[in-house]
Here is the input.
Amino acid sequence: MQKKIARALLSIGAVFFRPEEPFTWASGIKSPVYCDNRLILTAPEHRITVETAIAETVKKEYPDCEVLMGTSTAGIAHAAIAAHILSMPMGYVRSGNKDHGRQNRIEGKLEKGQKVVVIEDLISTGGSVLEVVDALREAGAQVLGIVSIFTYGMQKGIERLAAAGVKNVSLTNFDVIAEVAADEGYIKPEDIERLIKFRNNPSDESWIGAAK
Here is the structure.
């Protein structure tokens, strides 16, 4: 499944490698990869593949799940589609409380004690998804874990999730996508070592220009 999802993301440009011309993240970090899983929504064939995989992963890894909660904003549509497949309630968690109306942060009905799985499109350092987990826990939900479409597998993210006692299951990951990208000609095989070096320490830019 990991390679199938990787091929789908690469084919629609949802994951795009450019090691010779790095992208700059909002944090200022130079990255050889850009990820925009919103593109899945505009590719029906691959959307079916991804959303079905999310639903099947929820059933397999979290059989006691009662509600899906998407992260705002990228996880909302994926949570909604997967919940539809599973005939399960869903909602989503805002990045902050609304400044009007009922000032909700959690949208959708959520009862205290309900067993929730968070649907996230992408995990890097884990900060944003853990804010969602904290909000749900504060509301009295029992967070069983996370299903994400793609994870970088960065050590900081792994450590943060472990410290918070949160399980994450990703449909695919950075290492698998790099391997598939090399196999299918998106990048050169010798680029894999550079990509893994970035993944292991994003603040170390020595991978840039390391191979030509």
